[in-house]
Amino acid sequence: MAKTAEDFNKRRLRSSNITVVVSIALVLFLLGLMGLILINAQKYSDYIKEQLVVNAYFDENFDAKDSAKTVKMEAETFKKIQALAPVKRATYISREMAAAEAKKSMGIESSALFEENIFPSSVEVALKPEFVDPTKIDEAIKQIEATPGIVDVKNNSTLMVEVYNNLENLLKWILGFSVLFLILAVVLINNSIRLKIFSKRFIIKTMQLVGAKRRFILKPFIKEAVILGVIGAVLGLAVLFGAWYYFITQIGTPFAQDNDKLIILVVGIFLLGVLITVFSTIFATWRFLRSNVDDLYYS
Q1: Which of 7, 18, 115, 237 has the most CB atoms around it within 10 Å of its CB?
Q2: How far is CA 226 from each of CA 216, 249, 258, 297, rounded to the nearest angstrom?
Q3: Which part of the chain is the ABC3 transporter permease C-terminal domain (predicted)?
């Protein structure tokens, strides 16, 4: 009979541990998924910002006799633009390339309709994502305009500001949902741990009544919490990256190439799972350590 009761308690304990591990893994999976979405949203936000280019033009009037000197001057100016702090990427467009692009856009194949030299050479500048900020874009354009050899800078600042604001609003919404998922993760994991500790409240109080110190009583519960937190975190991360790998292989697009942010996400999710489990265990156990015997029947 005693053996049957012991087997029953072991099965109940095993079932309780499995429930806690699954709860931790599921919550951390959802939290990690939001983290991956946030990382990739930031990445593609920066990519879109880098596609918003500024065109810096050289003087279109030049003497053909000084073509070598002009080419040298433009090459020096191009290097100076590349070295500017706001510049992410710069592309030199010669007069010939500008003429070819104009013919292509107008659907003209013959060069008899206009001369190639009527189009000035220019530099197509992609700004760093942080300089697309409305408060910094004007300063970035002024730096390009001040470069010797540049006579005109054209850009659609209104479009840049609009795109920037839309992307920032989108990121704020995603960040808000991530914070909400973090709060839910703490609440759900805490509730799972509290239910587990609740089933052992009489054991905790019995140990205390026979003279066991609080630290002695807490120690095995904390060890168990660390183990459950580690197992839950590993399981959640394994499912997360397994599902994510399947997703990117199905759509054929690489995501989350920023390894530093990925490492931070993995370490953060792992530590979060362990810490929430440990602190929830301490708080739940401490509650019963401070309670009276009669309170155990009404908790």
Answers
A1: 237
A2: 16, 34, 29, 28
A3: 177-292
Helix (H) or strand (E) holding 125: strand 122-127
Q: Does an H or E element contain 196, and which?
A: helix 157-198
Cut 0.70: pTM above it: no
User: Are 194 and 284 in contact, with CB atoms under 8 Å apart?
Assistant: yes
d(CA 95, CA 92): 10
Token digits of residue 109: 């194949």
What does residue 293 show for φ and ψ, rounded to 5 degrees? Answer: -60, -45
Q: Which of 156, 79, 157, 70 is nearest to 120 (CA)?
A: 70
Residue with tokens 């702090």: 85
Residue at token pair 């459950």? 228
Tokens representing 137 are 């874009």
DSSP label of 93: E
Task: Give the dihedral sign, CA 156/158/161/165.
Answer: negative
Alpha-carbon torsion (57, 62, 67, 68), positive or negative: negative
Region 144-167: mean pLDDT is 78
pLDDT of the residue at 1: 44
Average pLDDT over residues 171-194: 80
Structure token digits, residue 272: 């979060």
pLDDT digits (tens, 9 = 90+) for 166-177: 777 887 888 888
- pLDDT tens digits for range 112-128: 555 556 677 888 888 88
Euclidean distance between CA atoms 104 and 107, whole angstroms: 5
